[in-house]
Amino acid sequence: MKTRILTALVPALMLALAPVAAAPVMAQSAQPPASAASIPEAKIDSYAEAALEINQIRTKYEPQIREAETPEKAADTHRVANQEMIQAVEQKGLSVEEYNSITAAAEADPDLSQRIVAMINEKR
């Protein structure tokens, strides 16, 4: 994931690192950001796998949301996408709160962010 891959990955990673809490249901019990030192490597690995799946889900649904004929159809598609994102996170052994906490920690800690990027690149 050197310079060329990093350049191509940054926009996708920013989407993947965005909190899954886009749906109001998910914002109910937000945890404070975890410190990078307190996050086990296995959780970071699960996070990287979930982030890749979330990026695929976003790639799939963003055009449908943008091109929806009505705001209601866009909202329905957005709900479906959010539900798939929640399932992707949970299937990787994380709660939505843990995922969002790791996202916040990665945004605050460039070293953690780089570790996640490296892990995502290994999985691609």
Poorly predicted regions: 1-17, 21-29
Cα-based radius of gyration, to the nearest Å: 15 Å
- Along the chain, the helix and strand elements come as HHHHH
> Looking at the structure, what is the overall shape?
elongated
Number of helices: 5
Strand content: under 5%
The rounded distance between the terminal residues' Cα atoms is 10 Å
List its salient traits.
124 residues; mainly alpha; elongated; disordered N terminus
Q: Which SSEs are present, and which pair or pack?
A:
Layout: H1 3-17, H2 41-66, H3 71-91, H4 96-108, H5 110-123
Helix pairs in contact: 1-2, 2-3, 2-5, 4-5
Short summary of the structure?
The chain is built from five helices and no strands.
Structure description:
Helix content is 72%, strand content 0%. By secondary structure, the protein is an all-alpha fold. The chain has helices at residues 3-17, 41-66, 71-91, 96-108, 110-123. Helix 2 (41-66) packs antiparallel against helix 3 (71-91).
